[in-house]
Each structure stands twice: as C-alpha cells, then as structure tokens.
Amino acid sequence: MVAVAPGSTPVVGDTRLTSDLILHVNGHEHELSVDNRATLLDVLREDLGLPGTKKGCDHGQCGACTVLLNGRRVNSCLILAAGVRDAEVTTVEGLSVGDGFHPVQEAFVAHDALQCGYCTPGQVCSVVGMLDEVERGWPSILTADVTEESVKLDEAEIRERMSGNLCRCGAYVNIVAAVEEVAGR
Fold first, then answer.
1. Range of 168's domain?
2. Is the distance from CB of 35 to CB of 42 less than 8 angstroms?
C-alpha cells in the first residue's frame, strides 16, 4: 500500500516506493535507485558490494554494522539508505590508507583483538569514531569533569564508549589494549 497525502488519489503505477539518490561512500559517488525501506546496511552489502559491514542482530543492539556517517559512528541497520543523501559514509573498507591498514586495524592485529572476526569491522569503525569524539572533548557517562577540555581515556572510559559493540568471542581485553595503543600514538 502506498501512503498518499490527504485529499490526493493514488496513481496506478506510482513509483514512490523507490528513491533515486547519490550515496557518497568511501570517497566515491554511487548513483542508485533504492527501495525506500532499504537500510543503509543492506544497500552497502547488496547493492555496493561492500561486505565488510556485517549484519549481526539487525536491531541496533550488537554494533557489527557500525559505520561512520559524516564521521560519527552509527548502526547502519537502523538507518534508511534514502535518508543519507548528502552525507559521507565510511565503511571499514574505506579506512585503509593506500595499500596499508588504518592504525586502528594495525593495533587490532598487533594485539590479537579479534577471534572469529565477525564483529571486527564494526569494532574498528567504532574505535575510529570514538577516538574522534575523545579528541573533540565529548564526555561520556564516566567522564569525571565535563568542564575539562580533554578526556582521559582510561580502561573504564574505553569500555563505556565501546559498550555498543559486542564481541561474542570475548576479545574485550585485547580490544581495550588495541585502543589504548592507538590513543597513545
């Protein structure tokens, strides 16, 4: 059923179930016609062939689908693709520097901060976004003094800020160590 404005009549063959849009993903423009109900996660994986972003719970609870939207971390399973016009989306595939890894990816490898690896792309994107939040001085619920311009990124602060990303394998100790290394650079 197509939603129709009050007082108007639906037209046979109405195409308002799709939207033509340009998505900016990892520095590239993609012209697409997407179903208005399609999530950003599904468009990234199915239409753009970017399998790094994972579908975990599909309810915004696990963080496996975390990407950066204009630099802010978001659960791509909760965002409609048609709603991200004029925004810059960065997936784990877009974090690498040339042929090398992003420093967060390097730290994850160095600290063995992954086991099965399913949550890793979302964890990595979340760390990148979280480090930007810290650099901007954004407090968390654990920040002792919100009037300070800088945030002390200790283990408790890292765990709180990463609490939206779950790891079924339990690699949290190594994830925290990887974040501490990158934050100390």
1. 103-184
2. no
